[in-house]
C-alpha cells in the first residue's frame, strides 16, 4: 500500500456471543516498539462505519472497509493491535501493515 491511496480492510470471523452496548475497542498502532496511536473507542459507535449496529448478533460475519492513507504517513512498517472488550472478556487481533514511499 502507498501513501495517498486506499487501504482495504477485510475481516471475517465468528461472533461467539451477542455483543451489546458498552463494548469498547483499544486501537494501538506501533512503529517498531514506539506507539504512534493509542485510543479507546466505543465499539458499537464504530460499527456504524461498516453499516452494522449493536447488539451485534451471534454468528458468521464479514466486513470490508476502505480507508484513505494520508500523504503525511511516514513510509515504514506498522503493527496494528486491536483489542475488543466486552465485560471482562478480551479478543485480540494483531496484524501488520507496510506503507511504501511512492
CATH-defined architecture: Sandwich
Overall mean pLDDT score?
78
Strand coverage percent: over 45%
Question: What is the CATH class?
Answer: Mainly Beta
User: In this structure, how is the largest beta sheet organized?
Assistant: 4 strands, antiparallel
Total domains, how many?
Answer: 1
Structural class: mainly beta
Strand order of the largest sheet: 3-2-5-6
Task: Give the ordered list of helices and strands.
Answer: EEEHEEE
Here the CATH topology equals Immunoglobulin-like
- The count of helical stretches stands at 1
The outline comes out as globular
Query: From the alpha-carbon coordinates, what is the Rg to the nearest angstrom?
Result: 15 Å
How far is it from the N-terminal to the C-terminal residue, by CA? 9 Å
Provide structural commentary.
By secondary structure, this protein is mainly beta. The chain has a single domain (6-98), classed as Immunoglobulin-like (Sandwich). The chain contains one helix and six strands, in the order E-E-E-H-E-E-E. The chain has one helix at 43-47; strands at 6-15, 24-31, 34-42, 59-68, 77-86, 89-98. Strands 3-2-5-6 form a four-stranded antiparallel beta sheet. A two-stranded antiparallel sheet has the order 1-4. The chain is globular. Mean pLDDT is 78; it is low at 87-94 and 96-102.
What is this structure's SSE topology?
Layout: E1 6-15, E2 24-31, E3 34-42, H1 43-47, E4 59-68, E5 77-86, E6 89-98
Antiparallel strand pairs: 1-4, 2-3, 2-5, 5-6
Produce a short descriptive summary.
5% of the residues lie in helices and 56% in strands. It is built from one helix and six strands. The strands form two sheets. A four-stranded antiparallel beta sheet has the order 3-2-5-6.
Amino acid at each position: 500500500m502507498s501513501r495517498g491511496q486506499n487501504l482495504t480492510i477485510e475481516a471475517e470471523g465468528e461472533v461467539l456471543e451477542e455483543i451489546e452496548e458498552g463494548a469498547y475497542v483499544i486501537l494501538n498502532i506501533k512503529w517498531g516498539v514506539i506507539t504512534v496511536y493509542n485510543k479507546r473507542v466505543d465499539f458499537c459507535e464504530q460499527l456504524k462505519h461498516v453499516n452494522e449496529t449493536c447488539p451485534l448478533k451471534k454468528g458468521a460475519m464479514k466486513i470490508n472497509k476502505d480507508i484513505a492513507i494520508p500523504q503525511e504517513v511516514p513510509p515504514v512498517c506498522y503493527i496494528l493491535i486491536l483489542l475488543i472488550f466486552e465485560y471482562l472478556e478480551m479478543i485480540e487481533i494483531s496484524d501488520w501493515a507496510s506503507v511504501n514511499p511512492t
